[in-house]
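Dear colleagues,

As part of the handover before I leave the project, I'm documenting each prediction I ran so the next person doesn't have to rerun anything. This entry is a single chain, and its sequence is reproduced below.
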Amino acid sequence: MVRRPAAVEAAEYARSHPRLSVGLHADLGEWVFRNGAWEVVEEPPDDVGDELSRQLDRFSELVGCLPTHLDSHQHVHQREPEAAVISALAGELGLPLRGRNAHISYCGDFYGQTGKSEPMHEAISVESLLNLLTALPAGITELGCHPGVGTDDDLPYGVERSIEVAALCDRRVRAFIDEREISLRSFTDFDNGRCGAGW
């Protein structure tokens, strides 16, 4: 999210870790669920294409290369008119777009809130993660997650981040991954000629 305050620090970290996949998380508005309805916190841009171009330029300026993949804040790229614009950009750049790539499935079920921002911590437990891994289809799947530490007071998804860290780092999860011979990969493991060591 290149327009957010931590973007510079995140880019510095990315440049010092070239094997890290770094995608453009397009920031095209924001909504929160309050008082029984979704409210606009940040208005979507009038011209999605122009805003995407600005964010892509900012990404390249900060990180020093193109992103390894594309997605968007609050999955805005899944609806029109944003979907058509972001899909066109992904095609032009030859980048995977979350949930819209024939070779990469997307699983967003490891998420600790309902669609109304109510806590649903059972969905980010170790048991839930093991169930998701058991049900993975053959092939490549991107598993969406939002881990973080020191975020418990952040809203609207704060305490859930540390719960995710605990589940993702649990020894039972790693043992299951090894036992099932699940291969952990990132977008930099595929050869698209972008950042880092290449795909």
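The radius of gyration is 17 Å. Strands lie at 24-26, 30-34, 37-42, 70-72, 104-107, 140-143.

All the best with the project,
I.
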